[in-house]
TrEMBL record:
Gene3D superfamilies, per the entry: 3.40.50.360
UniProt organism field: Companilactobacillus suantsaicola
One MF annotation (Gene Ontology) recorded for this entry: FMN binding
Superkingdom of source: Bacteria
Protein's UniProt name: NAD(P)H-dependent oxidoreductase
Spans through the membrane: none
GO annotations of cellular component type: cytosol
Domain NADPH-dependent FMN reductase-like stretches: 1-145
Amino acid sequence: MKLVGIVGTNSTESTNRRLLQYMQQRYGKKVELKICEIVDIPVFDEPEDKTAPKAVQVLSEAIKNSDGVIFATPEYDHSVTAALKNTIEWLSYTTRPLINKPVMIIGASHGSLGTSRAQAHLRQILEAPELKALVMPNVEFLLGRSLQAFDDDGKLVYEDKVKELDKDFNEFISFVELTEKLTVNSKFFEENQKFSWDQVANGEDM
């Protein structure tokens, strides 16, 4: 199984990146987890031809070629980072690789409360009409006190969180497998990729 992990910030010292790196190491025998950065994504400017910049195209291809996506998001002012929202705007306006794609949301924060508000907001964003990601329900992995959460080898030191992450990740694997079975040859999911406003813009009769 091929998964993509998206670091939801352009910070060079993000503990969300460290969380994805830990997952890459811990679950490497189960899945192939490719970690993608968003630091090179330019500011969204709504190009008339809807052509994605190179950095967006590279990320989009990685998502399209994956079986599922893991978003690791910090929380800034009760929401996701501007860099992550900017990236998602590019994807929704141009290539739309997240349609029908299984998604898991995780988050690490320096404080004790985790990233619950940001995760809730990200879930709402990813379920928007032009994104239509299949966000795994009933799972919210929150890693608080993340500056102290990893040892020098990059391993998560909170045993309760290790067990929780193992459980959540295994559930995501099952969710990806189930989604694949549901989407194969399904007319519902084929229709899910059509947009009435695109047809009008292209001069098609509604």
